Amino acid sequence: MAVATAVTPAPQRSLRRYAWPIGYVAVIVFLFLLYQTILPSLVKSVSAPVVAWLPVATINECLMWAIMALGLNVVVGYAGLLDLGYVAFWALGGYTAGWLMAYPFNWTFDFHLFSPVKSTAPGTHINFWIVILVAGVLCAILGLIIGAPTLRLRGDYLALVTLGFGEVITQFFRNSNNIGGFNIANGDPGISSIDPIGTGPLGALGIAPKLLTNSAAGNIWKILVLGLLVGICIFISLRIREGRLGRAWLAIREDELAASMMGVPLVRTKLLAYAVGAFFGGIGGVANASGITTAVSPSGFDFGKSVLVLLMVVLGGMGNVWGVTIGAFLLSWLNGNGLKQIGVQADAFFGTSLEATLPRYNYIILGLLLVLMMLFRREGLIPEGRTKALMKTPSRTEAESLGAESLEAEAETEAIEQSDPESDAKIAASAAAVSSVQGHSDPGPSKREGHR
Fold this sequence. Notes:
The protein is mainly alpha-helical. The protein has helices spanning 19-38, 44-53, 56-78, 87-100, 128-150, 155-174, 201-204, 216-242, 244-254, 256-261, 266-293, 303-316, 321-350, 354-357, 362-376, 385-392, 396-419, 423-441, 444-451, and strands spanning 101-102, 111-113, 124-126, 197-198, 211-212. It has a domain at 19-300.
């Protein structure tokens, strides 16, 4: 006899899984079309407020900061490792662009590799996309070298070590004009005249500018380039999180002891988190040096930058890729142009002078914002599911205190009953009274049969 087997259809992927990626691509394309075609065709009274509140240069800065926040989210949000010196990888990525994409400051030989600048230009000129890979790999290797002897530490000690590492890198580049008699990175002046981003075939066909400089047209096309880099970082973050390595990071973040007992290699897994985060930091450093500032110097890599990136991760939601991206956009816009425009509007309405003074208190405002977030929404704007559940679950001490309170209440009840010797008699008398009332109201089965 044939046995009929039910064939279950393959589960269809929900569109909700692709809602955020599709929305991100739509936002990037919309911003590009907005400044490329829509705003130039509108009257100035309509386009001027949009350009004032959201300049193209600010959008590019937001995208660059999003790369940095996504990299730190791997270290802090996924693996739960507090890193206060993340700006060091950003600096190394920027100086890699200065070494490989700039006119000479120390050497005299010329080298060109798929560079958009003229072949007769002096210095080292390598294609932007090749330098992105070189800087990412170099920063990942440095992350492994630095993390190997330090990641055995935990908590505050690890934070102090990473803080010291960030300061050492900054001071190294500050004094790099004379290290062993060699000028490695030109000291405080830094490296200027870094090559802009080339557009390749699009520039050759006349669709885009050949070089994306800090001009109006170049900044508009940088939205697509930097948006592509952010999209790559988002894709890598999401794919790693769903894999075995991402689950190991989350296990270490939630309970390091339990993760080690389940066979997770702690040091190796933490090192991989540092390497991936450093890789993103190198990409962000090249994007900043070539796409935003076209120069690199030690003054751009102070401790405040590391704190700002950490604020973006905490504000957006540690462990949530999309929350961190939105947090980076919000804080970088507020720090770059938002406070200034808020001051302009306040001056127009109230006649104050906040336009010049409000941006100077940016770190005070960001600090107050962080305090408010910690008080009222510790999990962030768009929290990760696990983080949100952990935030709402009482800690062990709270649970123990709740259990102690219940035990104390039971002990007090028993003590009251034992201290009143007449309580048992009172309870027995009340029970007898209730039973007698029920007896009068219920004639019983024999009497009911007699009436029948």
